[in-house]
Model the fold of this input.
Amino acid sequence: MAMIDNKDLNPELIKNVDPDLQPTKKRIMGPVSYGASMMGGCVSIGTFSMGAGLIGALTVTQAVLAMTIGCLVIAIALVFIGNCGHKYGIPYTIQLRSSFGTTGIKIPGMLRGVPAIIWFGFQSWVGAGAINSCTKILFGFDNLPLIYALFTILQVALAIKGFEGIKWMENISCVFIVVILVYMLYIVKTQFATEISDVFSGIQGTWGMPFWAATTSFLGIYSTMICNASDYARNLEHKVGPVSTGSIYTLAILPVTLFMGLIGLLVTAATGNSDPVAVFSTTMDSKFLTIVTLLFIAFAQVTTNVLNNIVPPAYVLMESFKMKWSHATIAVGALSVCCMPWKLVTAESAAGLNLFTQLYSAFLGPIFAVMVVDYYILRKQKLDINDMYDKEGAFKGVNWNAVIAIVFGSVCSLLIVELSWYVSLIPTGVAYYLLMKTRGSKGFRKGTIFE
Done:
C-alpha cells in the first residue's frame, strides 16, 4: 500500500483544523495492538440484548450461525470503509467530504452520531448498575443515579486523553475480557443447564426471515462502527494489508460477539431476565466471583464506549460545530444522559432495541453504499488530499446526489426492516452511481471517472 506523504498537504488548508481531524502523522498501533483494541471495543452490553431477543425464534445452533454471518459481514465492511483512512490517515468526517460535501457531511455524521450517543447512555447505565451492585454488596451503599453520573464523567475523562490513552486501556483489558466471558458462559451453562434444556427442547427454529433478521441485528450493532472505520484504521501501521486487517477484525469481533450473544440468549431463556447485572449479582456461589463478574460488566462498558460511542460522535461535533476535542467529548456525555438510558434497560426494551438497531441500520447501510461506490468505483481509491481539506474547493457545499441516494436506499430498506442493512446496499449504490453520471456537479465529479 502506497504511503501518502503529508508534506504534500498545503499547510494553509489545515491551519484552522483541529489536529485530531488532520491526517494522522504517527501510526501508533501494530496488528496485535489494533486487534486487542478492536476486541475491547466490541464488548457491547447491547449484544446481550440482541441475544435475548432471539428467544423462541432460533435454536442455539442457528443463533451461533447468525452471529457468525453477521460478524463476517462486519469484518469485510470494516475493511472496505477503513481502507481510505488507513491509506490517507483521515477520519470519517473528512472522508465523507468527497461524497457528501463539506456541508452535506452533517447528514451522515448525525445519522452515525445519534445511535452512538444512545448506546453510550444505555451501556453507561448498565455499567453503573454493575458498580452499584458491587458497592451494595461490599459497603451497603446503594445510589445508582450518583454512580451513573460519576461513571459517565469517568468515561468522558478517559476519552479526552485521545487514542494514545485508548490504545493502552483496550490492550490491557483484552485478556481479562476474554477470560471472564468464557467463565460467564461456563457459569450460565452449568447453573442453568436444566432450565436451558427445557426452554430449547420445544424450539424448532427456522432458516427463514427470523434467521436472516438475526444476522442484521448483530450486524446492526456494529453498523455504526463500520461507517467510521477510518477513525480506527488511520492509527494502524501502513504495512498491514487489507487481508490481514480483515483477519484482525474477524478474530477480534467474532469471539466476543459469540460469547456475549450466547450468554444473553441462555440467561434470558433460563431466568426470563435479560439484564445481565441482575442475573449475575444474584446467581454466583461466591461473593468474590460476583464482584469480579460485575466489575467486568462495568469495565466492558468503558472499553466499548470510549472507542465506539464517544470518539465518532465527538469527531462529528468537532467538524460540524467547530468544537474542540475536549468540549465535544463532554457534549457527547451530556447528550447520552438526555437519552434517559434507564428507560432502555427494562425487560420490555429488549425487543425494542432489536427494532431500533434494524431501523438505524436502514440509514447506515445506504451511507456505507455511497462511501464504497464513491471511493472504489468513481475515484478508484485515489483522493487529492488538498481537495479533501479545502472547504472552498471542489467539495464545497452539499452533494445532493449522495443525499438523494441515501434517502432512496433508506426507503427501500424500510420495506423489509428485518433485513434493512442488506436491502439498502444495491439500490443506494446504483442510485448514487447513476445520479453522479447524469447530474453530477463539476466540483464533485473532480477526480472521478466522470470528470
